[in-house]
Design brief:
Structural class: alpha+beta
Number of strands: 13
Strand content: 15-25%
Shape: rod-shaped
Order of helices and strands: HHHEEEEEEEEEEEEE
Length: about 325
Amino acid sequence: MTADQEPNPFRPPEPDAPRAPAAPWPAPGGPGAPPAWPAAPASGFGAAAPVTAPAAGGYPGWGAVPAAGPRNGMGTASMVLGVIGACLCWTLVLSPVAFVVALIGFILGLVALGRVRRGEATNRVYALSGTVTGAAGGAVALTLSVCLVILSARPAAVQSHAGAEYLAGAGELVRYEDGLRVVIGEPERMAADGTGDATVALTVDLTHHGEESTTLTGGEITAYADEERLPASGVRVAGQGPPDRLRPGETVTLTYAVTVPEDAERLGLDYAPSGGHTVAYWEFGLPEGSAPPAGPDPGGEGGGSGGSSGGIDA
């Protein structure tokens, strides 16, 4: 490097070149010292604002955050359902529905009371009302529901005095509590088989006066000749059997053939139209001419017993 060339400021110094001592740092306020940082004003424009926490309503410019209100919906629903269940629980048909409604109201009432204790709800009266009415209505509804099941499983009983309190006769009306009416006509002699037995025909008229259809399946009939029970094979349906169901206002006529001893004088009948009806009782006088004809041996008895007791299955 020549004398008239300026030194390269970026060139590293020579390893053996002497180093100049560093200039001392100028004293504060002295010549060459950097200016001091201005102090913050005590007040007025530019004063540092103290840092504080945001207000409860939220940060400025974002709007206030609404506080959560009481959760009273479950208590109100509990009271409504409990009152509905208490009103419906007294009806036998609607008692199962009332039990479900009252049970839901009772459960919601317990949950609502828990919210009141935790301070999340304020309608303690509503919650307590729903719990009490739900429990009371549910208890009554459960009792009536059990009664409804028992009554539904119980067969329809004879409502008339005839056939229940005393033996019904030919042409006498026997009435069941579901609206079914039964009338059995006078026995008519059909034929003798030459073995000492005779066959008589019984006409059974079934008329339904109820509001709902009734079943005619699973019925039974038992016959007695002079108080002696006849075998089941002696009773049969002559013609078409009963239908499965009988609608309101419908009538069906059935004919049964019963084999009895020719010397029998009385015919007893235990008859249930279906498995859903109780047995009613009849007694008839057998028509003349059923006695055995006179023969060379008047002391001999023609003997067989035919007879009955049979089921009626459609």
